[in-house]
Design goal:
The chain is an all-alpha fold. It is built from 20 helices and two strands. The protein folds into three domains: 59 residues, no CATH class; 103 residues, no CATH class; 219 residues, MetI-like (MetI-like fold, Orthogonal Bundle).
Length: 421
């Protein structure tokens, strides 16, 4: 009996003598490592092409290296400044030393450009003062007095407040500017004066235009998707080629084609005038109407495809059963068929809206100044003024808007219904 008890209490072992539980754990770990090895290339690709650029974008929107790197001694001393009156003599000495080094290293322009964003005319002040470096002082003379002698603006506390605000490696300046906010002397944000506001209107215009494009895409795309879903397979596949045809053409080419069609002497106006429908050309191009027409045409497949995919999965017998039980065809469609297509419509609408808020080429070529969206100004600050901080701030706000839309969609419709198939 005792020997049988010992055998029953002994752990099970494999053929090589290793306990079976240990061997099973090793096999499970090996499978996990193999699975991680298979997804590692994809994870690395996403990290390098998606997560890392987004992280750099967010960092750049608050990055503020110019003042700290060019005026390191001055920045350290200004941390303890009470911001009453002018800084101490030691701060002026540090500024003289920093500007002397900046002149030798040729970093004065980037400092002047950054501070000029805070106060107009700061660029000329920095450059004029840097040309006087190193300072030549008479015995017993004050460095502060010499700076004020070079330019009286060094005696203005507001210019020193601007330097002090930027004496740190990060700043909310670009994000505030993108939201038409200004930082007060106490460090709190406040709305800029009416005549200085621009970006809130631009963001509002972007969302408004995107909303209308999405509405028109739904209004046109839903009937087309329903028609394709109810046609015989051969005819449906043939017409689907026409829906997919815009994907095979460059966006730039499609916009150029719409310019040819919509301009005052274009084919549409000539045809209408030839038929006697109108007496003078309609303003269809280089305004909001032209932008709407081109964007709806370009983005229409993105609402048709997910809606069609959901409609094809709905059995036709549902509608026939409702009608056979005495329901009106429209009532049967509205109560039985339409609710099952909401997931596809919502997914397509979300996709269209997100793509709209980031559109650049179509409004730039077919619209006027009042039709330019946020992406136009991202390109402007990137390519024209070389203001990476402002471009990154605008891009970050677009990213926040996109993530907010996705969160709202997931809340209302449900993430499990996002599948397009």
């Amino acid at each position: 009996m005792m020997s049988e008890s010992l055998v029953m209490d002994a752990p099970l072992t494999a053929a090589d003598g290793v306990p079976l539980a240990v061997k099973l754990k090793r096999q499970a770990r090996l499978k996990q490592l193999k699975a991680l090895g298979l997804i590692a290339p994809l994870a690395l690709f996403l990290l390098l092409t998606f997560l890392l650029p987004i992280g750099l974008l967010l960092k750049r929107s608050v990055d503020n290296p110019e003042v700290v790197s060019v005026l390191p001694q001055t920045s350290r001393l200004l941390v303890d400044w009470d911001q009453r009156g002018l800084p101490s003599e030691a701060v002026f000495n540090a500024l003289a030393a920093d500007l002397t080094r900046a002149r030798e290293e040729k970093t004065v322009p980037e400092l002047a450009k950054r501070l000029n964003m805070e106060i107009s005319g700061f660029r000329s002040l920095i450059q004029r003062t840097a040309r006087k470096m190193p300072l030549e002082l008479a015995p017993g003379a004050s460095v502060r007095d010499r700076f004020i002698e070079i330019d009286e603006r060094w005696g203005d506390p507001d210019h020193w407040h601007a330097i002090a605000r930027n004496a740190k490696s990060w700043t909310p300046y670009y994000v505030y500017s993108a939201l038409d906010l200004r930082e007060t002397k106490s460090g709190t944000p406040e709305l800029a004066p009416e005549e200085e506001r621009a970006f809130l209107k631009i963001f509002g215009r972007t969302l408004w235009m995107s909303l209308w494009v999405t509405i028109w895409c739904i209004a046109l795309g839903y009937p087309i998707a329903y028609w394709l879903a109810t046609l015989p397979k051969r005819q449906s596949n043939l017409l689907m080629i026409l829906v997919l045809l815009p994907f095979w053409t460059s966006v730039l080419v499609r916009v150029a084609a719409w310019i040819v069609l919509l301009q005052s002497e274009g084919l549409i106006n000539r045809a209408l005038m030839g038929l006697g429908v109108i007496d003078s050309p309609l303003p269809l191009a280089f305004n909001r109407m032209g932008v709407y027409i081109a964007m709806v045409h370009i983005l229409l497949p993105f609402i048709i495809l997910p809606t069609y995919s959901v409609m094809k999965s709905i059995p036709a017998t549902y509608m026939r059963a409702a009608i056979s039980l005495g329901d009106h065809p429209f009532a049967a469609f509205w109560k039985i068929y339409f609710p099952q297509t909401v997931a596809g419509v919502a997914a397509g609408a979300l996709l269209v809206f997100i793509m709209c808020i980031g559109y650049y080429i179509t409004p730039a070529l077919l619209g006027g100044p009042e039709e330019q969206m946020v992406s136009y100004f991202v390109a402007f600050y990137t390519n024209v003024t070389i203001n990476w901080g402002m471009a990154a701030a605008l891009g970050s706000l677009l990213l926040v808007a996109t993530m907010t839309l996705y969160a709202v969609y997931s809340k209302l419709v449900g993430a499990n219904r996002l599948s397009l198939g």
